[in-house]
Design a protein that fits this description.
single chain; 432 residues; alpha/beta; Rossmann fold; 3 domains; four-stranded parallel β-sheet; nucleotide-binding
């Protein structure tokens, strides 16, 4: 049996260009990911194909070239800038005689290194277990069959089946613990809503400067470094503005083709983004891939259900650009849409706070709604926001509901209902 090597420091990278735009990756980004994981690049294999090879992903000739480079450089890990199937990983390990990782496994490994909190560690373990569940057969081929003979007869379950059962049990346990953490986060969110503090969430491509900006705005000491996924666990701080205060949340950075296992595992953490009143979309204005990275973040926001939340674009790192100073760009209605800043040099932070102050209005609505019995599902949304002041029913079974909530929350609910909620309004009692 082929014994798998432990992951090491010397890595050979493999990057293939495909004609399909959706399958393309960035070789520079792969180098940064490998560096963030703590490995040293000792060789790079590149090529182009129309579609992946079923056996080796790269084709037989390229696989032999890869094996030769591994032997010549004494590399002990091969890292692909693409997603590999379990069969492809195993076939490549057999020909290269070393550990083979794909892009997803590499990102999961970086997340495992960065996790600091109890919740973060649980989320990373859950993502790793889900990813591992499709790859168990690769490491246990010598135990796939039951053995016969005296002393070797077991309970009728192969080692692979045992591992899968244990894996399912562990995933179930982690999900229960994460549900408990999610309930605790929900209580914290409700407390913030009752205090009528808006939540502003920092989002953006990884290494765009979100944590540096967070530290500059809140005078905090959140870990910030020039590496991918320096921030994993969300951090919340109070930010005082001219007309009040908001809660500023620093979240994990996004990346193109973010593994679905990670999106599912980080459901509780990403909830801070989904429930925010405003998203500060931080972009690296000095990055030549700024436009593409912007679109990738928009795709992830859509995947987690946060595409409807208002955004303010924060063009960071203007100190690396020529003839660009701090400024605010407005739309035709005089609403801020873009702010140019340098978090590292503390340039334009006052303009950013001014723009946030303009966008996060604290207007309070007091509404009376007549909700028919057929639309009772809306009651749950008002209960979750904890905004119900009074509730009674008329003779026809309609729910007469008095609510007091933030104008931003009402507009979000109305939009989600495609305007149906607005047809239930009996009166608007007050606007503060």
């Amino acid at each position: 049996m082929f014994e798998r090597y432990e992951a090491g420091e010397a890595a050979v990278l493999v990057h293939i260009d495909f004609s399909d735009e959706d399958s393309r990756e960035d070789i520079t980004e792969l180098r940064l990911l490998v560096e963030s994981a703590g490995a040293e690049t000792v060789g790079v294999i590149t090529g182009s194909r129309r579609s992946p090879d079923r056996k080796y992903f790269v084709g037989t000739g390229k696989a032999e070239e890869l094996a030769a480079m591994v032997a010549a450089t004494d590399a002990n890990v091969v890292i692909f800038n693409h997603a590999l199937s379990p069969a492809q990983e195993r076939n490549l390990e057999l020909i290269c005689q070393c550990r083979v990782l794909d892009r997803t496994t590499l990102i999961l490994d970086i997340f495992a290194q960065r996790a600091r909190t109890y919740e973060g560690k649980l989320q990373v373990e859950l993502a790793q277990l889900r990813h591992m569940s499709t790859r168990l057969i690769r490491g246990w081929t010598h135990l796939e069959r039951q053995k016969g003979g005296i002393g070797l007869r077991g309970p009728g379950e192969t080692q692979l089946e045992t591992d899968r059962r244990l894996l399912r049990g562990r995933i179930k346990t982690i999900n229960k613990r994460l549900e408990k953490v999610d309930k605790q986060r929900e209580q914290s969110r409700r407390a913030r809503q009752r205090s009528e503090l808006a939540t502003v969430s920092l989002v953006g491509y990884t290494n765009a400067g979100k944590s540096t900006l967070f530290n500059a705005l809140t005078v905090s000491e959140v870990y910030a470094a020039d590496q991918l996924f320096a921030t994993l666990d969300p951090t919340l701080r109070k930010l005082d503005l001219q007309d009040g205060s908001v809660i500023l949340a620093d979240t994990v950075g996004f990346i193109r083709h973010l593994p679905h296992d990670l999106v599912a595992a980080f459901k509780a953490t990403l909830q801070e983004t989904r429930e925010a009143d405003l998203l500060l979309h931080v972009v690296d204005s000095a990055d030549e891939n700024m436009g593409d990275n912007f679109e990738q973040v928009q795709l992830v926001l859509k995947e987690i259900g946060a595409e409807e939340i208002p955004q303010l674009i924060v063009c960071n790192k203007i100190d690396l650009l020529e003839d660009v100073g701090p400024k605010i760009d407005y739309d035709g209605d005089g609403v801020p849409i873009r702010v140019w800043v340098s978090a590292q040099q503390s340039l334009g932070l006052d303009l950013l706070e001014k723009a946030i102050n303009q966008l996060v209005g604290r207007a309070i609505l007091e509404l009376t709604l007549r909700i028919p019995a057929t639309a009772g599902h809306y009651l749950g949304q008002f209960y979750r926001l904890d905004v119900i002041q009074q509730k009674e029913y008329d003779d026809l079974g309609n729910c007469i509901l008095s609510v007091r909530l933030l104008e931003a929350d009402w507009h979000r609910l109305a939009k989600q209902s495609q305007g149906e909620l607005e047809t239930f309004i009996v009166e608007t009692a007050a606007i503060e």
